[in-house]
Write a structure and sequence with these properties.
Number of helices: 18
Number of strands: 8
Shape: globular
Helix content: 40-55%
CATH class of one domain: Alpha Beta
Oligomer: single chain
Mean pLDDT: 97
Structural class: alpha/beta
Distance between the termini: 33 Å
CATH architecture of one domain: 3-Layer(aba) Sandwich
CATH topology of one domain: Rossmann fold
Low-confidence stretches: none
Order of helices and strands: HEHEHHHHEHEHHHHHHEHEHHEHEH
Largest sheet: 4 strands, parallel
Strand content: 5-15%
Bound molecules: iron/sulfur cluster
Length: about 400
């Protein structure tokens, strides 16, 4: 049975991260997953990520119990199910963190920070908590969906980053320290580059890490960016995966085709999906989702510009033209035979199947595409039987066309 040994280290690392949130030694900042974590850490905050909690609610399939609580409170059941499940869980005072990490509950925020580079939903979501806890909230609202991110846009975002400083100083009781920011950013860059190399190991034809494994191993790059622990973990994971490549040991040696996953994971169906592709001898080797935490523009010698640029240039925040170019590059780099778009019902922002991109990209590249409907947390929007039929037919068609093509 194929196993990545570093998984045990990752579980331990995530466990101690959650414990440290409850230790009470440091003030707590809540932050969006692609938000200004490095700046917050430079002020000594422990950083908690509600989206990570949303993913946990999805993966443990508890989200469905909590979404109706948020709906009762006026949130539509058709908006981001991270938002509705997280708010619903909070209203019920329940969380899988109690069972899985022995925590009392989610940690109380001293400050809340968001970046709308991914969506406006995070601002609404986090404002709910800022109101509830009567807690300071700071936000970055970069220009969205650009073909090119010019210095004008970077300057604007730098100003927004710097505007956070007085509130962070007041809440943390610490003066802003540029040297500290540079050292956190350096660690963050080193970890993100290691994460990028981890993902790229699956350019090998006998790929050592699948998209589904990647969604688990990305935990530290989301919640521990800017720490030595994250860097050490990805160093360990990379060594193991490189060793596997040397030994020609992949997660699906008999793979007959290589698939790209576009969009959010279906958290409550990760295992089922992973098994389904494996049983059909299709290796899902790359994704836009896992690549979202590669910030290769970070530069500790130019911290403000490089943070502003890296966080504004992420895939989800780009024009369709740029997204298509990025996908074409990934197709080539990972030798992709087909792409599956997850059309996520409650996340418009991370779904690229609604405006004709699949057809246009397939016409340009010859890489066939499939759209499946589902959701990140709300399984009412996912039809398992229909998706199995669609995926099996799609994979069969790709494999046939490779044999006869
Ligand atoms: S990007 Fe989508 S899933 Fe993530 S917070 Fe925004 S709406 Fe929710």
């Amino acid at each position: 049975m194929y196993k990545i040994d570093a998984t045990d280290n990752m579980k331990e690392l995530m466990g101690s991260y959650f414990k440290s949130l409850e230790a009470g030694n440091k003030k707590i900042a809540w932050c969006t997953s692609v938000g200004p974590a490095e700046l917050l850490r430079s002020f000594g905050f422990e950083v908690y990520f509600p989206e990570n909690h949303g993913a946990l609610l999805g993966a443990t399939r508890t989200a469905m119990e909590f979404i109706p609580e948020a709906v009762k409170c006026g949130y539509s059941g058709h908006v981001c199910s991270y938002t509705t499940s997280d708010i619903g869980a909070f209203l019920k005072n329940e969380t899988p963190l109690q069972k899985h990490y022995d925590m009392k509950g989610v940690p109380k925020p001293d400050i809340i920070a968001y970046n709308t580079n991914q969506c406006r939903e995070v601002e609404d979501w986090f404002t709910f908590y800022a109101d509830h806890f009567e807690c300071p909230i700071v936000g970055i609202q970069p220009p969205r969906h650009l073909d090119e991110v010019s210095q004008d846009e970077v300057d604007l975002v730098v100003k927004q980053f710097k505007k956070m400083i007085p509130t962070c100083e007041e809440v943390s009781g610490q003066k802003f320290d540029l040297a500290k920011l540079k050292s956190v950013l350096k660690l963050s860059k080193e970890a993100t580059l290691l994460w990028q190399q981890v993902l790229k190991t699956s350019t090998a034809m006998n790929a050592p890490i699948s998209f589904f494994d990647g969604t688990i191993h990305m935990g530290p790059i989301v919640v521990l960016r800017g720490t030595q622990e994250a860097k050490d973990y990805y160093s360990l994971l990379l060594d193991e995966l490189q060793e596997k490549i040397k030994n020609n040991e992949g997660f699906l040696p008999q793979a007959k085709c290589r698939i790209f996953w576009e969009g959010m994971p279906i958290w409550g169906k990760l295992r089922m999906m992973s098994d389904l592709f494996s049983q059909n001898e299709a290796a899902v080797v790359a994704s836009t989702y896992c690549s979202s935490w590669v910030f290769d523009k970070f530069d500790e010698d130019d911290p403000w510009n490089s943070m502003a640029r890296a966080y504004t240039e992420i895939f989800i925040n780009r024009s369709e033209k740029v997204k298509m170019q990025m996908l074409r590059d990934w197709f080539e780099e990972y030798s992709i035979d087909g792409i599956v778009y997850h059309d996520t019902k409650t996340c418009f922002n991370n779904s690229n199947a609604k405006f004709g991109m699949p057809q246009r990209l397939s016409d340009q590249t010859g890489v066939p595409s499939l759209i499946i409907e589902g959701d990140l947390c709300d399984l009412r929007f996912f039809s398992e039987g229909q998706s199995i039929t669609k995926i099996e037919t799609f994979v069969e068609q790709i494999q046939d066309s490779k044999v006869f093509g």
